[in-house]
Amino acid sequence: MTLDRSGTPSETHFVGDVRDLPLLLRATKGVDGVFHLAAVTSPPQFEDPLSEGYQVNVMGTYNVLAACAANGVPSVVLASSSSVYGHLDRRASEDDLPPSYDNLYPVSKRANELTAAAFSEKGVRAVSLRYFNVYGPGEETKASAASVIWRFVTDALAGKSPVIYGDGRQRRDFIYVKDAARASALAMERGRAGEAYNVGTGVSTEFNEIFRVVKEETGFGGEAIHVPNPLKSYQGFTEADTTKAERELGFKAEYDLKKGIREMVRAYREGGRKDPSVTPLTALRLKRCRKASFAPPTAWSSPFLFFDFLLVPPSLRPAERRPRDRTAGKPNAGAR
After folding, report:
1. Distance (Å, rounded) from C-alpha 126 to C-alpha 328?
2. Is 65 within 8 Å of 115 (Cβ atoms)?
3. Banded pLDDT at 307 (limits 50, 70, 90)
4. Active site annotation includes 105
5. What's the pTM value of the predicted model, to 2 decimals?
6. More confident site: 5 or 246
7. Which residue ranges form the domains of the chain, and what is each CATH number?
8. Within 13 Å and on the Cβ side, how many CA atoms surround 220?
9. Crossing angle of helices 257-269/207-218, nearest 10°?
10. What is the DSSP string of 135-193?
11. Of 85, 105, 176, 197, which is the active-site residue?
12. Is the pLDDT assigned to residue 84 strictly greater than 80?
């Protein structure tokens, strides 16, 4: 079952918004668990104080958890973010949280984690996953919030020179979408109530190196364009300490950067979204159809509900640019 902003309504597909509590109360009836991926996901979208992003992320998550508590849904896995570590310049373990933030996006994600922990005291086993920089086929839905890898790949395949902010020496921990999907499934099975887990590879890579790999895999012969960084809130370094996820969830990333980019390039050359795991949502949905690359646990006998990450009001969709959205269309704006 899914809940999304678009699509054809049916018994298994709800169309709506996470701020609509009555709808969530209907959607969460009779399910064993919820994967809550709905959010506004780019820090630049929170620089406008009139943005609805904070309301969508914080109240939307509260509504999801409240609906689950009211309907006796035992388990929720929700999407947090590596942005909760702020501008940490070393490998991040789950306790490395700053006392304050310079942007409301990580504030919203940290508030969601605390809310999830509180609901874990009310009978809902809520687990937060701090996804690092997720990439893979299907990111066109994220527009200006898409990963730098997606931008490099799509530009290179189109014969365009990608744009890199600054000197390209910034480093981030990029995790392939199939690994993110597998971590989500493991968290539903094994995650401890109220806990947060890093979902990354434990390896950070310079943007210049990423572009080199993209050139190699796509055959692009041009060079990147380096421009000054216009973004106010920008993480120059991310790297996950995955010890806790390995120990408690049994999760370890299977894709290195080159393998992930190679598969991503192949998927786009073969038709992009035809790949069966273009997003964590799709991979997990197919998991119940026994089509994904890992077997479904036998305990999953009744429906699971997936809240799509596109579940935001039309005014906030990155592809629909408002006059005051000063970051729409800018490259490399994504936080994940």
Report:
1. 33
2. yes
3. low
4. yes
5. 0.81
6. 246
7. 2-316 (3.40.50.720)
8. 22
9. 40
10. E-TTGGGGGGGS-HHHHHHHHHHTT-PPEEETTS--EE-EEEHHHHHHHHHHHHHHPPT
11. 105
12. yes
